[in-house]
Design brief:
By secondary structure, the protein is mainly alpha-helical. The chain has one domain. The longest helix has 33 residues. The two termini are 12 Å apart.
Amino acid sequence: MGASPLPALLALLGAMFFGISGLAAQQGLRHGDARHGSLISIGTTALFYWLLLPYSLHEAHWTAATLLRFLAVFGAIGLLSPSVSLLLSFEGNRRLGPTVSGTIASTAPLFGAGSAVLVLGERLTPGVGLGTLGIVAGVMVLSWRRAGRRDAPLWAALFPLGAAIVRGGGHMVTKLAFEVAVAPFTAALVTYNVSFVAVALANRFGSARRPRIGLAAELRAILHSGRRWFLLTGVLNGLALLCQFVALSRGQVVVVSPIVSTYPLFTFAFSLLFRLERLGLRIALGVLLVVLGVVAVSTH
């Protein structure tokens, strides 16, 4: 009997939400800086999950010991992703430019699949292996731009490489953590709330002091400015992570991780729809590679 297509479909849906959130974030960055934008986005996602709390409490048979272990594991995951991976990505973009940084970061599926094979003992079939390489190659092609920085030191590549390792390896750790309890909603709640605290502390102690204007006034300022795009980014990221976690709870990392990483395909698709990008040979080649890769991985 063949494997269920549901994890692959959920991973693809998660990739779509991640891809659209990238466009919303781009709009937000026209009106605010990345550090403050990440705080608004992650805070919105954390609030989104609190609204799902009534459902979360009923998805597993909790004991005190199980709940404590679950909170500890996904709290640790939340410290790494998205907070640390996001900061590494921002630093990579700053030092290397989006072209080189995005190309290096697109290797995340290799770390996800590799760690799943080594740690979880998942089987990497030829179809999944070739499909993963096709997805990585396609995302690299889609991420490439002619403009870029060429004066950055070689060690600066460690920032986007670190982001790729955290993202790819995080899929394996998440799958491993679901052995404690299969509770994707609660996992998302814990992960993003810990990430929000981490990013809030980084904003407070790692940037210039901002005048205190009160939470209500700050919210009004966000809603009446272009920074409201970060609110949409947070909701979309919340939906995306839920799809990813449910997919990982039901399927293999070697299938879910590469498909989730196809989110640039959806970013470009919606960019073309709203005429923010032009369809050229490079984009057509990247899309073809990603589509063929997804077909190979999902039909393993």
